[in-house]
């Protein structure tokens, strides 16, 4: 048998280049928010899963929080139910909440768990109800009734740290639990940002369906600060689902998370490109 020496040496070079990053992040918690738009097909989910399992194998502690907006939307459509959105949030009546909990905690969560385990990981799926992880209350928005849309009241991370210590990869659906055991629909970016802060994570990475935070001329904006972000929201450059992402990325870094990154989850190996290269990719947000 002959081996292609040049190719083998390229592979060896790539591995040694990753070494300082592997050393730097060993034992560190990295929260990865996996957006519903970046999990459109099985190939994308499998590629994401390979990156996360590799992180775990080289000694990092990835914690996955996932969304599922498109998946919830298409199921509601099948049921003939229309959603109303107020400031980017889905008005969630009781029937809609059941669908949200079934889709996020059920189908979407288990698809991510199964993909990670298929790649040799040991993933465990949870919702915010498990272990009292995400305690929530009804979100108040002046003059609007959003139903079961919740805001995070507090996070009890013990179930996550136990899983991490046991070598498992926690996979969290952003369903919160209220004081009477009722379920709340929580934006996954908010849940991920708050969890990263409580865990004092090294990094939070948001995987979405855009190359980063884009300017009006479609350039990737990076190194964003609080006043810049508020300006970009006020002038409409940042809108819809990007608003909670940048707000809670900032919230996380201002609460002790070292850096936040908004990157393109549709790009193969985007997580590894972010972790293992000097320049990284997408939008960087620092405290
Ligand atoms: N300035 C901006 N730069 C990039 N994307 C933007 C900007 N402003 C608004 N967006 C929109 O934000 C969307 C990403 O947020 P969205 O909530 O749709 O996805 P997600 O958070 O990745 O998935 P999920 O909500 O399922 O977790 C982009 O697809 C884009 O349409
Ligand atoms: Mg979103």
Describe the structure.
This protein has 287 residues and is α/β, with parallel strands linked by helices. The chain has a single domain, classed as Acetylglutamate kinase-like (Carbamate kinase, 3-Layer(aba) Sandwich). The chain is 42% helix and 22% strand. It has nine helices and 15 strands. A hairpin with a 2-residue loop joins strand 3 and strand 4. Helix 2 packs across helix 4 and helix 3 crosses helix 4. The model has no long low-confidence stretch (mean pLDDT 94). The protein binds adenosine-5'-triphosphate and magnesium ion (MG). Magnesium ion (MG) binds next to loops.
Order of helices and strands, N to C?
HEHEHEEHEEEHEEEHEEEHHEHE
Low-confidence stretches: none
Q: What gross morphology would you assign?
A: globular
User: What is the helix content?
Assistant: 40-55%
How big a fraction of the residues is strand?
15-25%
The CATH topology is what?
A: Carbamate kinase
Question: What is the β-strand count?
Answer: 15
Ligand names: adenosine-5'-triphosphate, magnesium ion
The total count of helices amounts to: 9
Distance between the termini: 53 Å
CATH homologous superfamily descriptor = Acetylglutamate kinase-like
